[in-house]
Amino acid sequence: MTKLNLPPPSCRENCDVNLALEEFLANLEASGASQSTVKAHRYAIKDFIEYVGKNYVNELTPQDFTSWRIKRLKEGFKYSKGDRESSSWTLYYYSLYVRSFLAWLGVLKDPLPSVSKPRRRRLHTTLTRDEIKKLVSASRDIIDILIVSLLLETGLRAREALSLKKSDIDLNKREIRVLNAKFGESRIVFVGPLTYEVLSRYLPLLRDDDRVLQLSYTGLYKRLKSLARRAGVDVRKVRPHVFRHTFATDSIRRGITLPALQLLLGHKDIKTTQIYLHLAVEDIKNMYFKVFYSNQTPQESTT
Questions:
Q1: Are 146 and 199 in contact (CB under 8 A)?
Q2: Range 129-287: architecture per CATH
Protein backbone atom coordinates (compact mmCIF):
# COMPACT_ATOMS: atom_id res chain seq x y z
CA MET A 1 0.00 0.00 0.00
CA THR A 2 1.15 3.53 -0.77
CA LYS A 3 2.67 5.01 2.40
CA LEU A 4 1.23 8.44 3.12
CA ASN A 5 1.76 10.71 6.08
CA LEU A 6 -1.43 12.78 5.92
CA PRO A 7 -3.46 14.50 8.66
CA PRO A 8 -6.59 12.52 9.63
CA PRO A 9 -9.99 13.29 8.06
CA SER A 10 -11.76 16.31 9.57
CA CYS A 11 -15.15 14.60 9.34
CA ARG A 12 -15.83 11.46 11.36
CA GLU A 13 -19.56 10.73 11.02
CA ASN A 14 -22.07 11.05 8.16
CA CYS A 15 -19.34 12.38 5.87
CA ASP A 16 -20.04 12.90 2.20
CA VAL A 17 -17.67 10.59 0.33
CA ASN A 18 -16.94 13.13 -2.43
CA LEU A 19 -16.08 15.85 0.10
CA ALA A 20 -13.83 13.35 1.84
CA LEU A 21 -12.11 12.68 -1.50
CA GLU A 22 -11.46 16.41 -2.05
CA GLU A 23 -9.96 16.70 1.44
CA PHE A 24 -7.78 13.64 0.83
CA LEU A 25 -6.50 15.05 -2.47
CA ALA A 26 -5.84 18.47 -0.92
CA ASN A 27 -3.80 16.82 1.85
CA LEU A 28 -1.96 14.74 -0.75
CA GLU A 29 -1.00 17.84 -2.72
CA ALA A 30 0.02 19.69 0.47
CA SER A 31 2.31 16.78 1.35
CA GLY A 32 4.35 17.46 -1.82
CA ALA A 33 2.77 15.06 -4.30
CA SER A 34 3.04 16.15 -7.94
CA GLN A 35 0.00 17.22 -9.96
CA SER A 36 0.19 14.02 -12.03
CA THR A 37 0.15 11.93 -8.81
CA VAL A 38 -2.86 13.82 -7.44
CA LYS A 39 -4.62 13.46 -10.79
CA ALA A 40 -3.99 9.71 -10.90
CA HIS A 41 -5.39 9.32 -7.36
CA ARG A 42 -8.47 11.32 -8.38
CA TYR A 43 -9.18 9.11 -11.42
CA ALA A 44 -8.76 5.91 -9.42
CA ILE A 45 -10.84 6.90 -6.40
CA LYS A 46 -13.57 8.52 -8.53
CA ASP A 47 -13.87 5.27 -10.47
CA PHE A 48 -14.23 3.35 -7.19
CA ILE A 49 -16.85 5.78 -5.80
CA GLU A 50 -18.90 5.67 -9.00
CA TYR A 51 -18.80 1.88 -8.96
CA VAL A 52 -19.93 1.40 -5.34
CA GLY A 53 -22.61 4.12 -5.62
CA LYS A 54 -22.49 5.06 -1.93
CA ASN A 55 -22.84 8.63 -0.69
CA TYR A 56 -21.38 8.47 2.81
CA VAL A 57 -18.04 7.31 4.17
CA ASN A 58 -19.60 5.18 6.92
CA GLU A 59 -21.34 3.10 4.23
CA LEU A 60 -18.05 1.97 2.67
CA THR A 61 -16.70 -1.50 3.50
CA PRO A 62 -13.57 -3.53 2.70
CA GLN A 63 -15.82 -5.77 0.58
CA ASP A 64 -16.54 -2.76 -1.69
CA PHE A 65 -12.85 -2.61 -2.57
CA THR A 66 -12.71 -6.34 -3.33
CA SER A 67 -15.87 -6.18 -5.46
CA TRP A 68 -14.60 -3.13 -7.41
CA ARG A 69 -11.25 -4.77 -8.05
CA ILE A 70 -12.82 -8.02 -9.34
CA LYS A 71 -15.08 -6.00 -11.66
CA ARG A 72 -12.17 -4.02 -13.11
CA LEU A 73 -10.04 -7.16 -13.39
CA LYS A 74 -12.74 -8.65 -15.62
CA GLU A 75 -13.84 -5.59 -17.57
CA GLY A 76 -10.95 -3.11 -17.38
CA PHE A 77 -11.36 0.66 -17.23
CA LYS A 78 -13.30 3.04 -19.47
CA TYR A 79 -10.26 4.87 -20.76
CA SER A 80 -7.70 2.06 -20.83
CA LYS A 81 -5.80 1.48 -24.07
CA GLY A 82 -7.27 -2.00 -24.48
CA ASP A 83 -3.80 -3.44 -24.01
CA ARG A 84 -3.82 -6.25 -21.43
CA GLU A 85 -0.46 -5.25 -19.93
CA SER A 86 -1.49 -1.59 -19.76
CA SER A 87 -4.77 -2.52 -18.03
CA SER A 88 -2.92 -4.70 -15.52
CA TRP A 89 -0.62 -1.83 -14.54
CA THR A 90 -3.56 0.59 -14.32
CA LEU A 91 -5.38 -1.80 -11.98
CA TYR A 92 -2.23 -2.30 -9.90
CA TYR A 93 -1.69 1.42 -9.28
CA TYR A 94 -5.39 2.29 -8.96
CA SER A 95 -5.77 -0.45 -6.34
CA LEU A 96 -2.95 1.10 -4.32
CA TYR A 97 -4.52 4.56 -4.57
CA VAL A 98 -8.00 3.37 -3.53
CA ARG A 99 -6.58 1.36 -0.63
CA SER A 100 -4.68 4.43 0.57
CA PHE A 101 -7.90 6.46 0.53
CA LEU A 102 -9.86 3.79 2.41
CA ALA A 103 -7.06 3.36 4.95
CA TRP A 104 -6.98 7.14 5.51
CA LEU A 105 -10.74 7.07 6.15
CA GLY A 106 -10.33 4.19 8.61
CA VAL A 107 -12.44 1.86 6.46
CA LEU A 108 -9.54 -0.59 6.17
CA LYS A 109 -8.47 -1.49 9.68
CA ASP A 110 -7.18 -4.97 8.87
CA PRO A 111 -4.82 -5.20 5.89
CA LEU A 112 -6.22 -6.81 2.76
CA PRO A 113 -4.07 -9.28 0.80
CA SER A 114 -1.34 -7.47 -1.08
CA VAL A 115 -1.91 -6.37 -4.66
CA SER A 116 0.38 -8.32 -6.98
CA LYS A 117 2.62 -6.32 -9.27
CA PRO A 118 2.24 -7.27 -12.96
CA ARG A 119 5.23 -8.65 -14.80
CA ARG A 120 6.80 -6.30 -17.30
CA ARG A 121 7.17 -7.59 -20.82
CA ARG A 122 10.66 -7.42 -22.24
CA LEU A 123 11.16 -4.31 -24.28
CA HIS A 124 11.82 -5.27 -27.87
CA THR A 125 10.80 -2.07 -29.65
CA THR A 126 13.41 0.50 -30.59
CA LEU A 127 13.89 2.57 -33.71
CA THR A 128 16.71 1.77 -36.12
CA ARG A 129 19.00 4.46 -37.51
CA ASP A 130 17.37 4.05 -40.91
CA GLU A 131 13.90 4.57 -39.41
CA ILE A 132 15.11 7.67 -37.55
CA LYS A 133 16.49 9.14 -40.78
CA LYS A 134 13.17 8.46 -42.51
CA LEU A 135 11.24 10.21 -39.72
CA VAL A 136 13.49 13.27 -39.86
CA SER A 137 13.27 13.40 -43.67
CA ALA A 138 9.46 13.12 -43.59
CA SER A 139 9.07 15.98 -41.08
CA ARG A 140 6.77 18.62 -42.51
CA ASP A 141 7.82 21.47 -40.23
CA ILE A 142 10.19 22.49 -37.43
CA ILE A 143 7.83 21.09 -34.77
CA ASP A 144 8.01 17.58 -36.25
CA ILE A 145 11.82 17.70 -36.31
CA LEU A 146 11.91 19.11 -32.78
CA ILE A 147 9.68 16.33 -31.45
CA VAL A 148 11.85 13.62 -33.00
CA SER A 149 15.19 15.15 -31.98
CA LEU A 150 14.12 16.12 -28.45
CA LEU A 151 12.69 12.69 -27.59
CA LEU A 152 15.57 10.80 -29.22
CA GLU A 153 18.44 12.86 -27.78
CA THR A 154 17.14 13.40 -24.21
CA GLY A 155 15.08 10.30 -23.40
CA LEU A 156 12.37 12.50 -21.86
CA ARG A 157 8.99 11.05 -21.01
CA ALA A 158 6.33 12.51 -23.30
CA ARG A 159 4.68 14.52 -20.53
CA GLU A 160 8.06 15.89 -19.43
CA ALA A 161 8.76 17.08 -22.96
CA LEU A 162 5.28 18.61 -23.24
CA SER A 163 5.70 20.56 -19.99
CA LEU A 164 9.05 22.15 -20.99
CA LYS A 165 9.15 25.94 -21.17
CA LYS A 166 11.65 28.13 -22.97
CA SER A 167 13.00 29.23 -19.57
CA ASP A 168 13.90 25.61 -18.76
CA ILE A 169 16.45 25.50 -21.59
CA ASP A 170 19.98 26.93 -21.44
CA LEU A 171 21.39 26.65 -24.96
CA ASN A 172 24.75 28.12 -23.94
CA LYS A 173 25.30 25.28 -21.46
CA ARG A 174 23.30 22.86 -23.63
CA GLU A 175 21.24 21.91 -20.59
CA ILE A 176 17.53 21.37 -19.99
CA ARG A 177 16.00 21.45 -16.53
CA VAL A 178 13.24 18.84 -16.38
CA LEU A 179 10.46 18.38 -13.86
CA ASN A 180 10.07 14.64 -13.37
CA ALA A 181 6.48 13.86 -14.36
CA LYS A 182 6.32 10.81 -12.07
CA PHE A 183 8.02 12.03 -8.90
CA GLY A 184 7.75 15.82 -9.01
CA GLU A 185 11.54 16.28 -8.79
CA SER A 186 13.94 18.17 -11.08
CA ARG A 187 16.88 16.81 -13.04
CA ILE A 188 19.19 18.00 -15.79
CA VAL A 189 19.39 16.46 -19.27
CA PHE A 190 21.51 17.63 -22.16
CA VAL A 191 20.84 19.10 -25.60
CA GLY A 192 22.00 16.82 -28.42
CA PRO A 193 23.40 18.14 -31.72
CA LEU A 194 20.19 17.94 -33.80
CA THR A 195 18.08 19.32 -30.95
CA TYR A 196 20.57 22.20 -30.53
CA GLU A 197 20.31 23.06 -34.22
CA VAL A 198 16.51 23.06 -34.13
CA LEU A 199 16.19 24.96 -30.83
CA SER A 200 18.64 27.62 -32.02
CA ARG A 201 16.17 28.50 -34.75
CA TYR A 202 12.97 27.91 -32.79
CA LEU A 203 13.52 29.34 -29.29
CA PRO A 204 13.89 32.98 -30.44
CA LEU A 205 10.25 32.77 -31.60
CA LEU A 206 9.03 32.01 -28.06
CA ARG A 207 8.54 33.99 -24.85
CA ASP A 208 10.25 32.73 -21.68
CA ASP A 209 7.05 31.31 -20.19
CA ASP A 210 5.86 29.67 -23.45
CA ARG A 211 5.79 25.90 -23.63
CA VAL A 212 8.26 24.59 -26.19
CA LEU A 213 5.83 22.01 -27.57
CA GLN A 214 2.38 23.58 -27.47
CA LEU A 215 0.57 20.26 -27.86
CA SER A 216 -1.55 17.94 -25.75
CA TYR A 217 -0.44 14.32 -25.30
CA THR A 218 -3.08 13.31 -27.85
CA GLY A 219 -1.77 15.91 -30.28
CA LEU A 220 1.78 14.63 -29.88
CA TYR A 221 0.65 11.02 -30.35
CA LYS A 222 -1.27 11.85 -33.54
CA ARG A 223 1.65 13.86 -34.96
CA LEU A 224 3.99 10.91 -34.50
CA LYS A 225 1.54 8.49 -36.15
CA SER A 226 1.07 10.86 -39.08
CA LEU A 227 4.83 11.30 -39.37
CA ALA A 228 5.36 7.52 -39.36
CA ARG A 229 2.86 7.07 -42.20
CA ARG A 230 4.58 9.73 -44.32
CA ALA A 231 7.99 8.20 -43.57
CA GLY A 232 6.92 4.66 -44.45
CA VAL A 233 7.79 3.44 -40.94
CA ASP A 234 5.59 0.89 -39.15
CA VAL A 235 2.95 3.07 -37.45
CA ARG A 236 2.57 0.60 -34.55
CA LYS A 237 6.24 1.10 -33.72
CA VAL A 238 6.22 4.90 -33.51
CA ARG A 239 4.97 5.88 -30.06
CA PRO A 240 6.34 8.51 -27.63
CA HIS A 241 7.81 5.95 -25.22
CA VAL A 242 9.60 4.05 -28.00
CA PHE A 243 11.83 7.12 -28.45
CA ARG A 244 12.75 6.84 -24.75
CA HIS A 245 13.59 3.14 -25.21
CA THR A 246 15.68 4.02 -28.25
CA PHE A 247 17.58 6.73 -26.38
CA ALA A 248 18.32 4.40 -23.44
CA THR A 249 19.50 1.54 -25.64
CA ASP A 250 21.63 3.81 -27.82
CA SER A 251 23.17 5.38 -24.70
CA ILE A 252 24.29 1.95 -23.44
CA ARG A 253 25.69 1.10 -26.87
CA ARG A 254 27.70 4.32 -26.87
CA GLY A 255 29.20 3.57 -23.46
CA ILE A 256 27.12 5.62 -21.01
CA THR A 257 27.18 3.85 -17.64
CA LEU A 258 24.02 2.58 -15.98
CA PRO A 259 24.23 5.02 -13.02
CA ALA A 260 24.60 7.94 -15.48
CA LEU A 261 21.72 6.65 -17.58
CA GLN A 262 19.60 6.26 -14.45
CA LEU A 263 20.07 9.98 -13.71
CA LEU A 264 19.32 11.00 -17.30
CA LEU A 265 16.13 8.96 -17.40
CA GLY A 266 15.01 10.05 -13.93
CA HIS A 267 14.64 6.51 -12.57
CA LYS A 268 14.35 6.12 -8.80
CA ASP A 269 15.73 2.58 -8.87
CA ILE A 270 18.63 1.42 -11.04
CA LYS A 271 16.82 -1.90 -11.49
CA THR A 272 14.40 -0.04 -13.76
CA THR A 273 17.34 1.16 -15.86
CA GLN A 274 18.76 -2.37 -16.08
CA ILE A 275 15.84 -3.55 -18.22
CA TYR A 276 17.50 -1.80 -21.16
CA LEU A 277 20.62 -3.95 -20.91
CA HIS A 278 19.08 -6.90 -22.75
CA LEU A 279 18.39 -4.72 -25.77
CA ALA A 280 22.12 -4.21 -26.22
CA VAL A 281 23.16 -7.84 -25.66
CA GLU A 282 24.25 -8.32 -29.30
CA ASP A 283 26.44 -5.21 -29.08
CA ILE A 284 27.95 -6.40 -25.80
CA LYS A 285 28.61 -9.80 -27.35
CA ASN A 286 30.41 -8.16 -30.29
CA MET A 287 32.49 -6.06 -27.90
CA TYR A 288 33.38 -9.18 -25.92
CA PHE A 289 34.58 -11.10 -28.97
CA LYS A 290 36.48 -8.07 -30.22
CA VAL A 291 38.34 -7.81 -26.90
CA PHE A 292 38.96 -11.50 -26.24
CA TYR A 293 39.46 -12.88 -29.74
CA SER A 294 40.98 -9.98 -31.68
CA ASN A 295 44.56 -11.31 -31.48
CA GLN A 296 43.80 -14.98 -32.12
CA THR A 297 43.61 -16.99 -35.29
CA PRO A 298 40.35 -18.84 -36.03
CA GLN A 299 42.03 -22.14 -35.02
CA GLU A 300 43.13 -20.72 -31.67
CA SER A 301 39.67 -19.37 -30.86
CA THR A 302 38.14 -22.85 -31.13
CA THR A 303 40.61 -24.65 -28.84
A1: yes
A2: Orthogonal Bundle (1.10)
